[in-house]
Write a structure and sequence with these properties.
The chain has 68 residues and is mostly helical. The chain is built from 2 helices and no strands. It has one domain.
């Protein structure tokens, strides 16, 4: 797990909290910001997942070349 996945998960949690507070207080702007933060966190998490997958693939390719 890399930094992008961790930060993405944190951003999703923060966004959910903002959305909940926005709904509870009737603040549509805060609610919308929370939803946007959640989407941004999901994107960042996906980027981190892609980086992890690429790193794993590169390591496997190197092991194959090295004959391990």
């Amino acid at each position: 797990m890399n930094k992008d996945r961790i930060e993405g998960s944190i951003d999703q949690a923060k966004g959910k909290a903002k959305e909940t507070v926005g709904k509870a207080t009737g603040d549509a702007k805060l609610e919308t910001e929370g939803k946007a933060d959640q989407v941004a966190g999901k994107v960042q998490n996906a980027v981190g997942g892609a980086k992890d997958a690429a790193k794993d693939a590169a390591e496997k390719a190197k092991e194959t070349v090295d004959g391990k």
